[in-house]
Amino acid sequence: MPFSFHGIDHIQLAAPKGCESEARHFFSNILMWQEIPKPEALQKNGGVWFRCGAHQVHIGVDPHFTPAKKAHPAFYVQNLEDLREHIVANGYTVQEDALLPGAERFYVMDPFGNRLEFLEWMHTENHVR
Predict the structure, then answer these.
(1) What is the reported pLDDT for 85?
(2) Rounded Cα–Cα distance for residues 93 and 107 (Å)
(3) How far apart are CA 82 and CA 47, in angstroms?
(4) Every domain of the chain and the residues it spans
(5) Taking the model in full, what pTM does it have?
(6) Average pLDDT, rounded, for the chain
(7) What percent of the chain has pLDDT over 70?
(8) DSSP tag of 82
(9) Which of 16, 32, 58, 98 could form a disulfide with 12 if both were Cys (CB 3.0 to 4.6 A apart)?
(10) Cα dist. 55→8, 17, 99 in Å?
């Protein structure tokens, strides 16, 4: 029986033990993502889950945590400039990047040092989805 991929269900970002409060502040209050409940069987592991558009972002506790400074998820955003202004107004630094043709984008480090990319395609014909 052939199989097929339908996309990404969720991504997981690692964070240190005790990260939940900071994660909730950044992902809920700054990025305005909705927190979603973790299954009861996984709650003992710590961490917190969020909804980002049609996808989920799971913040998982890693006892040997090291932030991902190069590998990163990229989040497709409408009204990227509004998000940039909101993030900066809340005290976070953005790293601009104009190297991807047809897109505007920037990077932000989450509270744990993980690199996050936010981008908006300026012309949909340049981006195959």
Answers:
(1) 97
(2) 9
(3) 28
(4) 10-126
(5) 0.90
(6) 93
(7) 95
(8) H
(9) 58
(10) 7, 24, 26
Q: Concatenated DSSP letters for 9-58? A: -EEEEEE-TT-HHHHIIIIIIIS-PEEEPPPHHHHTT--EEEEETTEEEE
Fold of 10-126: 2,3-Dihydroxybiphenyl 1,2-Dioxygenase; domain 1 (3.10.180)
The alpha carbon dihedral of 118, 27, 115, 38 has a sign of negative
* Mean pLDDT to the nearest integer, 25-41: 97
Residue range 53-103, pLDDT digits in tens: 999 999 999 999 999 999 999 999 999 999 999 999 999 999 999 999 999
Q: In what order do the strands lie in the sheet with 55-61?
A: 10-15, 55-61, 48-52, 34-36
